C-alpha cells in the first residue's frame, strides 16, 4: 500500500511539474504573441480600401498584418489626445495632425505627407443630372432638398466642402440645407440610399461606390490642398509600426494608393 501511495505521489509531482513548465512556457512566449499583433493604425475613413490593400500586401511579405481602425480624422485625433493607444495615425488633413503634434504625441521625425485627393459632387447613380460646374448650378439642382456632407465644423471633408462652396458663392444658400454626417463615408451612404440627392465627398469615396456617380469636380483652388499626412505616435511600442509606415511611403505603397485613386501629396 505504501508503495502505491509513493507511486501516486510521484505521478502527482510529475504532472504538477509538467503543468508548471507549460505555464512558464506561456509566460515566456507572451512577448512573442504581443509582438505579432501588428501595428494599430488609426486612419481617416476615406482610406479604407487603400489601407486594407496595403495591409494585405505588407502581411504577404511575412510581416504581422496591421490592425486598421477607421473614423473621422477629428474623432481619431481627439481619441489620441485623450490617451487612446495606437501606433500610427493617418489624417485626412494637416490640421488634425498639427493638433497631435502640438500635444507632443508624435514620434520625432516620423511625420510625412502620404497622399492627396480631390473633392467631388455626387448624385445617385440613377439620377439624370447634367454636369454641374458652378455654385449657382449646385443651388438650382438642390432646390429645397438636402445635401450630404461630413460635419463642416470638424471633419476635414466637411471643412473642404464648406470652403469650396463659400469660394463659389453658394455656402449661404446651401448651409440651411446641409445634412451633416459624422464622416465622409456616412455622407456617401446618404446619397447611396437616396436620402440626399447630392453629396460632397472625396473622389476616392465616389470611386469606391457603384451606387453614386460624379456630377461635378470642385476646382483645386476652391479649397486648401487635400493632403493626408502619416506619423508614428510617441506611445507606440509595436516593432513593426515603423516598418509599415515606411512601406506606405515606399514606391510599392504609393502604387497601391494610386491604384485606389489617391494622388501624390
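^ Assign residues to that structure.
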Amino acid at each position: 500500500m505504501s508503495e502505491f501511495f509513493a507511486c501516486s505521489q510521484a505521478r502527482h509531482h510529475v504532472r504538477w511539474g509538467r503543468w508548471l513548465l507549460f505555464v512558464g512556457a506561456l509566460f515566456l512566449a507572451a512577448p512573442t504573441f504581443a509582438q505579432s499583433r501588428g501595428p494599430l493604425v488609426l486612419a481617416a475613413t476615406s482610406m479604407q480600401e487603400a489601407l486594407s490593400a496595403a495591409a494585405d500586401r505588407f502581411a504577404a511579405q511575412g510581416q504581422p498584418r496591421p490592425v486598421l481602425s477607421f473614423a473621422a480624422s477629428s474623432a481619431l485625433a481627439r481619441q489620441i489626445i485623450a490617451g487612446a493607444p495606437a501606433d500610427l495615425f493617418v489624417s485626412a488633413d494637416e490640421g488634425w495632425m498639427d493638433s497631435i503634434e502640438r500635444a507632443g504625441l508624435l514620434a520625432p521625425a516620423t511625420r510625412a505627407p502620404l497622399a492627396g485627393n480631390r473633392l467631388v459632387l455626387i448624385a445617385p447613380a440613377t439620377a439624370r443630372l447634367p454636369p454641374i460646374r458652378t455654385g449657382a448650378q449646385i443651388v438650382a439642382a438642390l432646390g429645397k432638398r438636402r445635401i450630404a456632407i461630413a460635419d463642416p465644423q470638424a471633419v476635414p471633408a466637411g471643412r473642404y466642402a464648406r470652403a469650396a462652396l463659400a469660394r463659389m458663392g453658394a455656402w449661404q444658400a446651401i448651409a440651411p440645407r446641409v445634412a451633416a454626417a459624422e464622416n465622409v463615408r456616412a455622407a456617401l451612404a446618404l446619397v447611396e440610399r437616396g436620402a440626399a440627392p447630392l453629396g460632397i465627398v472625396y473622389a476616392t469615396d465616389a470611386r469606391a461606390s457603384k451606387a453614386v456617380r460624379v456630377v461635378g469636380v470642385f476646382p483645386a483652388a476652391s479649397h486648401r490642398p487635400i493632403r493626408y499626412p502619416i506619423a508614428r505616435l510617441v506611445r507606440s511600442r509595436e516593432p513593426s509600426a515603423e516598418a509599415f509606415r515606411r512601406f506606405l511611403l515606399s514606391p510599392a505603397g504609393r502604387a497601391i494608393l494610386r491604384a485606389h485613386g489617391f494622388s501624390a501629396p
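The two ends are 83 Å apart (CA to CA).
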